Each structure stands twice: as structure tokens, then as C-alpha cells.
TrEMBL record:
Topology with respect to the bilayer: Peripheral membrane protein
Keywords of this entry: Cell membrane, Membrane
Protein name in UniProt: Putative membrane protein insertion efficiency factor
Keyword Transmembrane helix: no
Family affiliation: Belongs to the UPF0161 family.
Localization in the cell: Cell membrane
Length: 96
């Protein structure tokens, strides 16, 4: 059941992984922040879920503009309820 609930989150992760692999290299290193906006959004969705993660990513993209100072901007911390696989997808923690 928990795996089914993670499907929307992992669908967004898949889209971002494809974007980072195929489209992001075309633009090069243009983000004013570290990590890049796509990486920030990916991590936000992995940790916070689709709604909050997309919201955090959208707010970050709005702040990433020529008038911004930029710098290091990590996502807000959250205790991990799930584990991140080596491919970047979110999986339910195995219960003992």
C-alpha cells in the first residue's frame, strides 16, 4: 500500500531525472544557487512529497534570477520517513 502512495512522488522524480540527464546539460551551469534548481526540486520532492516539494522548487526557481545574490540554499530538513534508492527513487522503509 505504501508503495502505491509513493507512485506520484516517484513519477515526478523520474521526470526530473530525465530532465537532469537530457536537458540540463544543454544549459550548462547557469543556476545562481547551489545545489542547482533542478537538484533542489528533486531533493525536495524526495523528502517532502509532490505538493510541498513542487512548491519549494517553484519558490526556488522564482528566486533564481539575475538580481539574486545566489549562494548555498539547501532544502528544509525533515526526518526521513522513506529511503532513497541508488537510482534516486523513494521506497518505503522496511519494517522489522
Amino acid at each position: 500500500m505504501r508503495t502505491v502512495l509513493l507512485l506520484p512522488r516517484n513519477a515526478c522524480v523520474a521526470v526530473l531525472l530525465v530532465y537532469r540527464k537530457l536537458i540540463s546539460p544543454i544549459y550548462g551551469d547557469v543556476c545562481r544557487y547551489y545545489p542547482s534548481c533542478s537538484r533542489y526540486t528533486l531533493e525536495a520532492i524526495q523528502q517532502w512529497g509532490v505538493i510541498r516539494g513542487v512548491g519549494l522548487g517553484a519558490w526556488r526557481i522564482l528566486r533564481c534570477n539575475p538580481w539574486s545574490a545566489g549562494g548555498v540554499d539547501d532544502i528544509p530538513e525533515r526526518s526521513h520517513l522513506y529511503r532513497i534508492t541508488t537510482r534516486g527513487f523513494v521506497a518505503a522503509e522496511e519494517r522489522n
